[in-house]
């Protein structure tokens, strides 16, 4: 197997507030391989976006990366100077943010902003930059690109602005693209178009993609592997199809039960996850999910679980995996939650 293009080890990011230290990212480790599409999912506040910002060295105050290694190819990004990181950002690693309206400068033409992203890294001669900009807008399927390069952001639809952000991210043909909730504010049709575009770009130019999202359908439609985060930590990871068809952590299981499935009866009620995510200033002892977990045992209250193999290429951090829950509680008590129950979500995602 090829060496990882990105390797994150024991990453800790904390926010030092008047109320205490928020453990936003708490010991996250994972690898991303060339050409791979990796999804990172979880509820709001679980640390997925902060993990991405930590990789990019864009953690806002009063946050600080306190520990860990972020190795991109053969370079530890956490040891780079601010000037060195500015060279890497946009050239080798690009990030698409959630809200293009706030990411694009409202007083500059969209084409100029895409062109500027190229020129700052000297990857395209100045005389070729205008045509390269038009070509990029065409590549991300913006119609009438020759005219649209002169449009200001407010003259574009939400979908077009998001495409312009993707064009900006791709302007220097980065090896790694991090997309932070890129379809959240878009309608379903445009979401499907953006996901199809990212999948095509992944195939055509072999860019590795990290997709940050709370939408498991998005992961099903784009990613080959998924990481599930809860309360700043990774609780499960593995190939998308295996995680969706055979989740082993109760939180993953609960997430999959809480979203609509195309194979479900119209009268079936969605199952919510009871309770609220923990306070990351004073997280609970033991497993952080235990206050909300229907399968918790005594050990969950005291001991921190670690990620362990639970199947081929699949790992979970849990003292009571779903395999054990099936065995001990029986199918009668786990109706509609057996392995394979999430396949309807997977099918829906693949269909766009």
Give the structure's gist in a few sentences:
The protein contains 13 helices and twelve strands. It has helices at about 50-55, 80-90, 100-105, 110-120, 130-140, 145-150, 160-170, 190-205, 215-220, 240-245, 250-255, 320-330, 345-350; strands spanning about 5-15, 20-30, 35-40, 65-70, 75, 95, 175-180, 210-215, 225-230, 235-240, 310, 315. The strands form two sheets. It has an eight-stranded mixed sheet with strand order 6-7-8-3-9-10-12-11, with helices on both faces. Strands 2-1-4-5 form a four-stranded antiparallel sheet.
The rough form would be described as globular
Q: Uncertain segments of ≥5 residues (pLDDT<50)?
A: 331-352
Which class do the helix and strand fractions yield? alpha/beta
Strand segment count: 12
Helix fraction, binned, reads 25-40%
Order of helix and strand elements from N to C terminus: EEEHEEHEHHHHHEHEHEEHHEEHH
Query: Could you tell me the radius of gyration in angstroms?
Result: 21 Å
Mean pLDDT, to the nearest integer, reads: 85
Which percent band covers the strand fraction? 15-25%
Q: Largest sheet, if any?
A: 8 strands, mixed
Q: What is the first-to-last residue Cα distance?
A: 30 Å
Tally of DSSP helical segments: 13
The strands making up the biggest β-sheet line up spatially as: 6-7-8-3-9-10-12-11
